[in-house]
Hints:
By secondary structure, this protein is an alpha+beta fold. The chain has 10 helices and 10 strands. The longest helix is centred in the middle third of the chain and has 20 residues, at 107-126.
Amino acid sequence: xxxxxxxxxxxxxxxxxxxxxxxxxxxxxxxxxxxxxxxxxxxxxxxxxxxxxxxxxxxxxxxxxxxxxxxxxxxxxxxxxxxxxxxxxxxxxxxxxxxxxxxxxxxxxxxxxxxxxxxxxxxxxxxxxxxxxxxxxxxxxxxxxxxxxxxxxxxxxxxxxxxxxxxxxxxxxxxxxxxxxxxxxxxxxxxxxxxxxxxxxxxxxxxxxxxxxxxxxxxxxxxxxxxxxxxxxxxxxxxxxxxxxxxxxxxxxxxxxxxxxxxxxxxxxxxxxxxxxxxxxxxxxxxxxxxxxxxxxxxxxxxxxxxxxxxxxxxxx
Length: 317
C-alpha cells in the first residue's frame, strides 16, 4: 500500500507531460531524498468530464500492482483542488519520442520491447486488470533500457466484459467499436498494433479521419511494408484477429501461444523478467533529475491559483 503523501516535504519542479485533467511534474521528496513524477489532477475537470470512476479505479489499481515493468505508486494525497499521485520517475522519456526520432525500430529491439509488453499484460491479466490503452506515449524507458508502463486511467478490473468506450482510436479493437462488450483480448489486439507501429513507423489502420480508421479496423485488412520481418508479421496477424476465439492470448493456450511463437524463440523469458538481458538501447541519463528526454512544457499558471469555498469538489477515497 502506497504511503500518504505530505506536500510539505515535496518541491514541485518542471512539467513532464500534460493531459485533459492536469499534468505530470518532476518533484523532489525531501524526506526520502528521491525524485518522483507527481501526477496532479484537477478535481473540477475530473467531475466535469464524468471521470470520477476512472480516477478511483486508477488509484485502486496502482495500489494493487507490483511488477518491474510497471510504474510504481509511491504515495497519494489531495487538497481542495487537486489529487496528487506520487509515481516512480522514469527519466529515459517516452517510447513515443524515441520512435518518432528514429522513424522505426529494428526487429531485434522491437522484439525485446514486445516481449516486455507481453509480460506486462500476463501479470495484469492474472489480477483481472484490463489495461485498454497501450500506446507508445504510455511506455517509458528506464535508464537500463527496459520499459515501464504508466497511466492506468483507462484500466479496469474486469472478470467478464465491460462496455465503456475508452482508449485511443487507432488502437481500438473491433469488439470495442461494435460495442459487443470487451475484456482482456483488447490488450492483445493493441500489442499487435504496437508491434506493427514499431517496425513500420506507422500504425496499420492510420488515417487522418477517425471514421476511416474505424472502417479500416472493422475491415481488418493489413498491408505490410516491404522488409517487414516474417516472424513479426505472423504474430501480428495472429493478434489482429477480429474473431476472439482465434486471437492469440485469448485461445486455450493463453499467453503461452504468444510467448511460444517463433518470433520470440530467442527470448529467455526468465532472464527478461529479471532484467538480466542487456538492452540494445539505453537512454542517456546524466542525473536522477535529468528531464532532457522529455519535451519542454510551459508551467501552468493555474497551479497556484485560489479556489472559492463553494467550488470544493472533494473526492473521498
